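[job 0412] stage=complex_fold ligand=zinc ion status=START
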Amino acid sequence: MFDDGQEKPEASTQGKAVGIDVGLTHFAITSDGSKFDNPRFLTKHEKNLKRKQKQLSRKRKGSNNRNKARKKVARVHRKITNCREYFLHKLSRRLVDENQVIVTENLNVKGMMKNHCLAKAIGQVGWGMFMTMLKYKAEQDGKTYLEVDRFFPSSKTCHVCLNQVGSLPLDVREWTCNNCHTKHDRDINAAINIREEGLRHLTCGTRDKAVQRGLGGFPHERLRQEAYRQTVSRSNRGRKKSTTALVSG
Ligand SMILES: [Zn+2]
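[job 0412] stage=complex_fold status=DONE, emitting structure tokens
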């Protein structure tokens, strides 16, 4: 992945930490409250794609026209892929530039793809690719990327008092904690929990090499959370961005 011949910088965790939750309405939601729309590239190009596929199916096998029609279909596919990659590069670049520690949720994207209702939507948002980009951009810049366990209840836990609600159906976008009465935006609360969980790993986990994929979950502990808070507030001396973006955007 580091084919530019440069040494990979030492990973540092000094600086701003961000938790990122991914979704369908919004592609990404951050712990500092930013929401990034999900650009549905496939939906946008769907009509065009369907038409070109239909044209292709009408052409006689082995004919010149069939070959031309096939190229047209391929061109639409390429366009969709390019748009998606551009979007993912741009967003991951921005998040890595703005933060020193990037925490996401370790999603079972392949498992989710088996659920056909969601498959199309998930397939086109490209979360897996997004996380791969965050990871290698962070590594290139000497930043820390980690994923917290996907069974960690990021949505159902109140980030203020750590109270857990029993169930939170997907259509509930806002909820109020019945313990501390904080009103939560579902996604932002989840993103904050993802960040806190990641920081817990960094402070309590294996000290130097906590930056790995698929770390197991830690139970919530209030005391430890305090420690992370301090870690974060202490850490505004993140190192300067030293990258010339290898990928444009
Ligand atoms: Zn609460």
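Helices lie at 41-58, 64-98, 109-113, 116-125, 127-140, 186-204, 222-234.
[job 0412] exit 0
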